[in-house]
Design a protein that fits this description.
InterPro entries: CheY-like_superfamily, Sig_transdc_resp-reg_C-effctor, Sig_transdc_resp-reg_receiver, Tscrpt_reg_LuxR_C, WalR-like
Structural class: alpha/beta
GO molecular function: DNA binding
Number of strands: 6
Order of helices and strands: EHEHEHEHEHEHHHHH
Protein name: DNA-binding response regulator
Distance between the termini: 36 Å
Keywords: DNA-binding, Phosphoprotein
Largest sheet: 6 strands, parallel
CATH superfamily of the largest domain: Response regulator
Number of helices: 10
Number of domains: 2
Length: about 200
């Protein structure tokens, strides 16, 4: 049996995923959680083979949780299952140690196939998203530019961003200017929106 932990903040989606997986004779859903902070304890308690994680959850996001599980429970492989069909999220998920990436509007058979492949030691990426990711390339933003854009997305002033990130205001302006240029935006708010839409933040 392949032991699966499900983490999704939407109870209806989580329940539907569990129902689909429980139909399969070789899959056993051993835990269902609705908050990213609940995943580590549930994983330690139930020792899943696969953790199926949503990207955006309360508490801690799925990408952070995937990286943590890789360190603390290396026998548990992770698959990101999300509505976000964005190349940037795919790249970040793979960097975090996820072995699979499935979009929620995929057919159920594709999710089941992904779980079996990942359990067998392979990787699985939604084919359409993989092609899009190859075409679009990696994020043009440096890690610090992404940090500054995340802070800018909240609408704070340069001084607010500088205080939050413990940078000088001049450094913040330089990073914002660079990020605006790389995203081909006109304003920092537009740059933040574009970066978020591409999954770079």
């Amino acid at each position: 049996m392949i032991r699966v932990l499900l983490a999704d903040d939407q109870a209806l989606v989580r329940g539907a995923l569990a129902a689909v997986l429980r139909i399969e004779p070789d899959l056993d859903v051993v835990a269902e959680v609705g908050n990213g902070t609940e995943v580590p304890a549930a994983a330690q308690r139930t020792a899943p083979d696969i953790a199926l994680l949503d990207v955006q959850m309360p508490g801690r996001d799925g990408l952070t949780v995937a990286a943590d599980l890789q360190r603390t429970l290396p026998g548990c492989r992770t698959i990101i299952c999300t509505t976000f069909s964005r190349p940037g999220y795919l790249a970040r998920a793979m960097s975090a140690g996820a072995a699979g990436y499935v979009v929620k509007d995929s057919p159920p058979e594709q999710l089941v196939d992904a779980i079996r492949r990942v359990h067998a030691g392979l990787r699985f990426v939604d084919p359409a998203l993989a092609a899009e990711a190859l075409a679009s390339g990696a994020s043009p933003l440096t890690e610090r530019e992404a940090d500054v854009l995340r802070a800018a997305a909240d609408g704070g002033t340069v001084a607010d961003i500088a205080r939050t990130l413990r940078l000088s205001q001049g450094t913040v302006r330089n990073h914002l200017s660079s990020a605006i240029g790389k995203t081909r935006a006109r304003t920092r708010a537009e740059a933040a929106r574009l970066a978020e839409a591409n999954g770079w933040l």
